[in-house]
Inverse folding.
């Protein structure tokens, strides 16, 4: 039995957002004799700006894969992103979290599920974690290449783009910190292929993943997506903190470099899909 | 300036419908933007080909809603292997445009939304897929907009150049990525292939127009459709289009030549990195489509423009 997706629009803050809902294609084995509503739904949170585009195929495949395993699952486009409405210049972390929570309400309404697994990629991990921290029925957390601190993320993001510009022969004469100061001074900065807007920057720079989920002790998947041989100290520390609270943590390394800020053919990682599928399979 | 959604565009966003259409290589997921009911309908459906369907910085989303506020219907979708659509992302090049997806979209818009007249829209290789719809649907197409599409057989890229490849080869981080990342190795193979084919092909004088492009261009010429070919002087793709200018456009009669407009802008059109320029490209493409409306010249004010 195949997945029969249902693309739809739902409302968040009075505006239409796009969602791609996949009903479960079959009952979960463990839930077959019990109540279908005990099977949690998956909500996939994307990253921001151009980083929305690079992993968009992977999120779609993950959502389809989860549905094929028997989980109701949905990805959505936040305000100011993709096919949803709203201005990118007005995006804030708080708004993104509101959208994630409304997506969770939508998938619950569609599926009848009571609990939700929040899943995020890159900046979407901060969104997923914040939504989870405010959600009474969280069933799990999936972090694909987690962003641990907002400020580090922006600096790394801008530095990578500046490096790319220099490599193309452009002389910019600006550091990452200069660009971030310019965002505060001018309200935005053109950071090659997109703008970084003041509202988003100021609302997100102090975000901290570990602090956001300090009350969480449920099942968690940390998937590090970097071409390196070991888990980063940040990922190790996060896993240790969660385990210290009694959480069941699965850490996996995916040695890939998707090129988060650059357009290219769709990024697809079979190992990451398989690892995520295995984690879900053990969940319910 | 970044796009700011107007109340009219928000109204069009509220009216949008997500859909699935069956294609020969799996289901395609798309968005249909209906024309604003308060304006005189243009009776044209703009089929936008882009990957992904919302494009870098949502240019097609913006264009679709702008056009819809002015009475045009718009249809966008993820091609096979992209976004949420099924199937594999098969190679696309000037000899292999994605004709089946263009034709599937037209058929779907006709059968489900009642449209009979279409405008095809695409940038880079998607422009060639848009053009390929003339092979089968020429009579139904009123307009074609192509933005910086490569039209010769040889691959052209201003990213996979020997200059860039040398630079990457000298970067230890790149070698680490090649060593540990499957996707980087795949990308590296593709880059070498494109650079080699391009260099060797040009050395052998094999910079001929793609056969597929010539055939579909002939169908465009025989049709009644208008077209806009938009390139930048610094686009690698413009070098390929100059071959078409020399061999195809010079033999057209005056009436046809007037129907098929060429605009060459200073600098680049084919650049996802230049935000301001990309906004100019969207503005130009939208205004060109708006002018296809029969009553356009008679109307004083065009909403949202």
């Amino acid at each position: 039995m195949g997945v029969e997706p249902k693309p739809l629009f739902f409302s968040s803050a009075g505006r239409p957002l796009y969602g791609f809902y996949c009903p479960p294609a079959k009952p979960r084995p463990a839930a077959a004799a019990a109540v279908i509503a005990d099977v949690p739904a998956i909500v996939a949170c994307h990253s921001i700006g151009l980083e929305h585009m690079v992993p968009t195929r992977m999120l779609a495949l993950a959502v389809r894969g989860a549905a094929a395993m028997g989980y109701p699952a949905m990805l959505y486009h936040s305000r100011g992103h993709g096919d949803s409405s709203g201005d990118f210049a007005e995006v804030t972390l708080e708004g993104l979290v509101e959208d994630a929570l409304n997506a969770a309400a939508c998938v619950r309404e569609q599926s009848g599920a009571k609990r939700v697994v929040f899943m995020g990629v890159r900046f979407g991990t901060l969104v997923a974690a914040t939504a989870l921290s405010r959600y009474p029925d969280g069933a799990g957390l999936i972090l694909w290449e987690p962003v641990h601190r907002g400020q580090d993320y922006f600096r790394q993001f801008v530095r990578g783009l500046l490096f790319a510009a220099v490599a193309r022969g452009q002389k910019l004469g600006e550091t990452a910190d200069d660009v971030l100061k310019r965002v505060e001074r001018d309200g935005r900065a053109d950071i090659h292929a997109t703008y970084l807007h003041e509202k988003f920057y100021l609302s997100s720079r102090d975000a901290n993943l570990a602090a956001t989920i300090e009350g969480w002790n449920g099942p968690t998947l940390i998937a590090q997506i970097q071409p390196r041989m070991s888990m980063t100290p940040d990922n190790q520390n996060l896993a240790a903190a969660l385990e210290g609270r009694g959480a069941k943590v699965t850490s996996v390394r995916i040695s890939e470099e998707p090129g988060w800020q650059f357009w290219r053919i769709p990024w697809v990682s079979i190992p990451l899909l398989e690892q995520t599928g295995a984690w879900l399979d053990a969940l319910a | 300036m970044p796009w700011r959604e107007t109340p009219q565009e928000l109204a069009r966003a509220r009216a949008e419908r997500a859909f699935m259409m069956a294609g020969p290589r799996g289901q395609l997921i798309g968005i249909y933007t209906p024309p604003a009911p308060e304006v005189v309908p243009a009776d044209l459906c703009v089929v936008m080909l882009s990957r992904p369907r919302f494009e870098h910085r949502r240019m097609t989303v913006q264009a679709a809603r702008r056009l819809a506020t002015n009475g045009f219907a718009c249809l966008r979708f993820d091609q096979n292997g992209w976004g949420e659509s099924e199937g594999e992302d098969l190679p696309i090049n000037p000899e292999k445009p994605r004709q089946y997806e263009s034709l599937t979209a037209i058929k779907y818009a006709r059968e489900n939304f009642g449209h009979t007249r279409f405008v095809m829209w695409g940038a880079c290789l998607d422009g060639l897929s848009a053009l390929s719809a003339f092979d089968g649907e020429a009579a139904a197409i009123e307009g074609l907009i192509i933005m910086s599409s490569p039209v010769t057989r040889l691959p052209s890229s201003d990213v996979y150049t020997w200059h860039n490849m040398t630079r990457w080869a000298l970067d230890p981080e790149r070698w680490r990525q090649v060593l540990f990342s499957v996707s980087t190795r795949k990308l590296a193979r593709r880059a070498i292939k494109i650079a080699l084919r391009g260099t060797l092909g040009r050395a052998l004088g094999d910079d001929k127009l793609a056969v597929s492009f010539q055939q579909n261009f002939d169908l465009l010429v025989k049709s009644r459709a208008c077209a806009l070919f938009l390139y930048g002087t610094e686009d690698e793709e413009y070098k390929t289009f100059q071959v078409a200018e020399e061999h195809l456009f010079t033999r057209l009669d005056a009436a046809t030549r007037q129907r098929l407009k060429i605009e060459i802008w200073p600098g680049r059109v084919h650049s996802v990195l230049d935000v301001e320029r990309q906004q100019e490209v969207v503005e130009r493409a939208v205004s060109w489509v708006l002018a296809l409306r029969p009553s356009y010249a008679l109307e004083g004010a065009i909403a949202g423009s």
